[in-house]
Amino acid sequence: MPPNAERGIPSLRRAIARWQTWWVRLFILMVVVMSAAPVPRPWAAACMLIPLLLFCVRPPAQRRDPVTVHVPVRGRWISFNSPGSRVPSHRVRAHGQMYAVDLIQDTQDTAEGAMEEATGQAPSLGWSLRGSTPEEYPSYGAPVFAMASGTVVHVTDHLRDHRARDSWPTLIWMMTLEGFLRVLGGVRSILGNRVIIRHDDGRYAAYVHLRRDSATVRPGDRVDTGQQLGQVGNTGNTSEPHLHVQLMDRPRPESAAGLPMRWSGVDIDTERLSQRWATGYAKPSAVPDFPANGQIFQAIAPQDQRVH
Predict the structure, then answer these.
(1) Which of 12, 118, 203, 272 is most buried as measured by Cβ atoms within 10 A of its Cβ?
(2) What's phi and psi for 21, nearest 5 deg?
(3) Inter-residue contact 56 to 217 (CB < 8 Å)
(4) Portion of the chain with pLDDT greater than 70, in percent
């Protein structure tokens, strides 16, 4: 049987998970209908509970050894929500995020060792009703590169970049009503602009929250390791511009299970740690030899790695 083939309960779970956005929409519809219609209470409860339970179904987890791919950025970066600290890295398995990682650029001038880390402390949250523009963040517009050779299977890059959620009102908005609306909107609203590539080994890589109109590839294109795919943006469910990247066993995030990875081309800084993103010791579930939360690393291009 092919590696990705499934039968029975695992296949059923994946089929149900594929429609998770519609289960939420059906739940909302049932709440509205049952509130307005004279339906017996047991029937009303069942009609609302069933879609809610179906929404909670996730694809079966894939237990595979981490595969080595090349780091998708260049320069000095900080990892957070990392599988190097815990799994699930984002505390959810939905949308293939079991082993996903988020990255922001480190802004310290490394030429001055005594200089305090610019990204070390969490920024103070004010009370502005409008967040900062994405251009105010150093990660915005940074190039994103393919982690392995493969074929592009999906590109979305027309969604606009929104302002950061970096004040108390905007952060509360993001965590409450906006978050609920994005769940109703589905993958498009949660992941934003993205590029998905099928690697030659059959795994899929998703590069998420990309900048509007920055994609340099289109579905069907052949890409090589280290080829630029787009730029870091602030689209989808984000509080500030950053890159979210993950490996999956299917091309559709709704029905995909996340897969573990390791990176080549990474030199972790053992002298510095971003206190803003650090979360202490790694959990037993963490993927070994992967940058942990708050770790700062230097990412080099594949050709530079060969030279060294």
Answers:
(1) 203
(2) -65, -40
(3) no
(4) 92
Give the span between the Cα atoms of 62 and 44, in whole angstroms: 36
> What count of other Cβ atoms lies within 10 Å of the Cβ of residue 91?
9
Can you tell me which residue has the tokens 């879609």?
51
70 in Cβ contact with 225 (< 8 Å) = yes
Calculate Rg over the CA atoms of the chain: 20
Give pTM, 2 decimals: 0.91
Contact (CB, 8 A) for 205 and 148:
yes
Contact 287, 89 (CB under 8 A): no
Query: Residues 232, 242: contact at Cβ < 8 Å?
Result: yes
Sequence-separated (6 or more) residues with CB below 8 Å from residue 216: 228, 229, 230
d(CA 255, CA 287): 23
> Which one, of 249, 232, 250, lies nearest residue 241 by Cα?
232
pLDDT of residue 305: 62
Yes or no: say if 142 and 177 are a contact pair by the CB < 8 Å rule: no
Q: Show the tokens assigned to 258.
A: 């996340």
Give 15's Cβ-side CA count (13 Å radius).
Answer: 8
Task: Delineate the domains of the chain, giving CATH numbers in brackets.
Answer: 9-55 (no CATH), 67-307 (2.70.70.10)
In sequence order, what are the residues at sequence separation of 6 or more whose Cβ sits closer than 8 angstroms to the Cβ of residue 116? 108
pLDDT digits (tens, 9 = 90+) for 6-54: 777 789 999 999 999 999 999 999 888 888 888 787 888 888 899 999 9
pLDDT of residue 304: 66
Tell me, what's the pLDDT at 137?
A: 95
Mean pLDDT, the chain, rounded, equals 90
Q: Which alpha helices (H) appear in 88-186, and where do they start and end?
A: 168-173, 179-185
